[in-house]
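Sample A.
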Amino acid sequence: MNIRTDYSFLFSGLNSTKSSGSSNGMASSFLSDYACIKNGSYLKLMKAYYNKTDADSKSSSISGKTDTSTSTDTTKTLAQIEADADALKESADALLTTGSKSLFQEKDITTTNEDGTSTTARGYDTDAIYKGVKAFVNDYNALLKSVGDANSKTILQQTVNMVNHTAANSRLLSKAGITIQSDNTLSLDETAFKAADMSTVKSLFNGHASYAYKTSASASMIDYTAGREAEKANTYNSYGSYSSNYSSGNIFASYF
């Protein structure tokens, strides 16, 4: 199935490739690190690092210094992707909830007839389910938008996987009033949704084999991948090693 694209660089050429996730190299040798610490270069590096005021800048011309980040994306972009992925996972998980707190738990629904009388029957709370699905659709679209600013191949590939899975469920989604737009975002028609068979909607959004379950998993992977990419913005991590593929000489030289 061909996936319609608007974020051309987002999905172009990625559908048939596996996530690269390639290693960016090992840290510099112990002796080289020790020499830099001993001669005071490490202290200068730390002062320069914590005095940086624009962590998002990728330009090497600012103040004549080269950004030591090896990430292909800015920290601002990655933070937004992580936030949107978390939001999508949360809204998907809300639909996946089972038991007494499930949105798909049948209950007594009272409706008012045209003549003013009330009728109570066992069924789904369509308004509550619509609200949950609407949040899911909004969060899905927000994540696609933020990933559209990304350059990381691993993030893009995880997003392609999510979009492909959505496309594979397009027929069922349309039965629930949800259509896939030309830019791969989702559109939810309230009237069509509330007129749909709620058992079909439940099969899409509730249960371990559902569309929502797979989307939640994809959101988790995008969040994780963005987090790993963000680590590349740190030149020195809590484990006492460099988290980028720069050698110590290149890192220190960029500040002097």
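Sample B.
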Amino acid sequence: MKISVAQTSPIKGNIEANILNHKRLIENAIREKVELIIFPELSITGYEPELAEALATTQDDERFDIFQQLSDNHNITIGIGVPTRSDVGIRISMVIFQANQPRQTYSKQHLHSSETPFFVAGNHHTFLSNNQIALAICYELSIPEHSANAFQAGTDIYIASTVNSQNGVVKDLAILANIAQQYSMTVLMTNCVGQTGEYFCVGKSSVLNKQGELIGQMSDVDEGVLIFDSETEMIDIITLSKNNLNL
């Protein structure tokens, strides 16, 4: 199975422009026959807590129909970062599009203290590919209960969608390496590049093998897609300039 994480430079609050950029990255992944692509935390709006109330939407937003069409036409699962509305407040979510299936929303279950004035926590896990793949959104990868629950569900691959500065990348990769070693999981991390909210993000979207070893990593500046083949453990890195590096 070819799975991927996208590395983006979100435009603050500009949903339409960010959708176009997502589409461009997805099309690159489709050309490589990728079956799953996951984007960074709040990738559709940028990480902008103060704007979340104004920008929040639902999984059924018609602007997202393009992602369902791409999923249906190319049999690719797509996960985008979106602030979503619920009966109890705004959530940090990932809206998931699967071929010819209803849309799903996974909402961050463990919020950082800086997020609680703006967001409420989700209340359920979402697994993909018959529980083979578990999703985490940024801070919750640091909560041992989250990865433990993924392991207990039979997960083989753990994908963390983040917004990270240099210090955050170093810290989170260390945590993810421990998760990989402890549970014998392949782990992927997706991050943004450039300024988003209060963070200057440094990319370095990564893949770690089941021994916790770093086997693929993007640069700190490029937008693009990091692709992992779960059968061969080969890595492809595709930037928006369409340079392709085989590791």
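B remarks: The chain has one domain: 2-246. The chain has five helices and 16 strands.
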